[in-house]
Amino acid sequence: MATRDGGAAADVVLFVGCRAGSTSTEHWRFPNRDVPILHIDIDPMVIGANYLTEVGLVGDAKLALEALGTEVQARLAHRNSDAVDGAVLAGRAKAARLAQLEPLANSLDAPIRPERVEQSLNRLLPDDAVVCADPGTPCPYFSAYYDVSRPGRHFITNRAHGALGFSMSAALGAWLRLHGG
């Protein structure tokens, strides 16, 4: 098996709070159906709804990941000597994605490229910025290029649910949450 960029396929895929619907999986092409799936979701009806699931964990995503992280950390010293470092692979994938972004983000073409808008927002928004987006065109660009790895940043969307107008109420809710309203 190989990924679309020619790299090796994953040994396992972990869905967290994800319905794994047609939009997020490119019409169920990725991940490959032969890859074992682990799925964490608070709604038991979501787990395994679109992919055969080897292990389903019903619970809060943050709590489940914290518990899983504790278990994994305890076992790292005992992993096989030929195990691949996932952080290195993720770093390579992120660097490749940024390399794709740069020429598009630096383009001075008109109309303005969405990647240029994303790069500008990444540079100009404060570290505690909360961005809310309606489903549709903004979602793939923000999902791909918005830098939420900076502590305090959040991206809120209701992708693929056809809820146009969602971002206004989400922004109001985020503001109230942040300002104690």
UniProtKB/TrEMBL annotation:
Annotated keywords: Thiamine pyrophosphate
User: What Pfam families does the entry give?
Assistant: TPP_enzyme_M
> GO: which molecular function terms?
acetolactate synthase activity; flavin adenine dinucleotide binding; magnesium ion binding; thiamine pyrophosphate binding
Q: Which Gene3D superfamilies match?
A: 3.40.50.970, TPP-binding domain (3.40.50.1220)
Cellular component aspect of the GO annotation: acetolactate synthase complex
One of its GO biological process terms is:
L-valine biosynthetic process
Top-level taxon: Eukaryota
The keyword Protein biosynthesis is annotated on this UniProt entry: no
Coiled-coil intervals = none
- Positions of the Thiamine pyrophosphate enzyme central domain: 9-68
**InterPro entries in the record:** DHS-like_NAD/FAD-binding_dom, THDP-binding, Thiamin_PyroP_enz_cen_dom, TPP_enz
| ATP-binding recorded as keyword | no
The UniProt entry's sequence similarity note says:
Belongs to the TPP enzyme family.
Name of the protein:
Thiamine pyrophosphate enzyme central domain-containing protein
Q: Which organism is it from?
A: Rhizopus delemar
Name the lineage: Eukaryota, Fungi, Fungi incertae sedis, Mucoromycota, Mucoromycotina
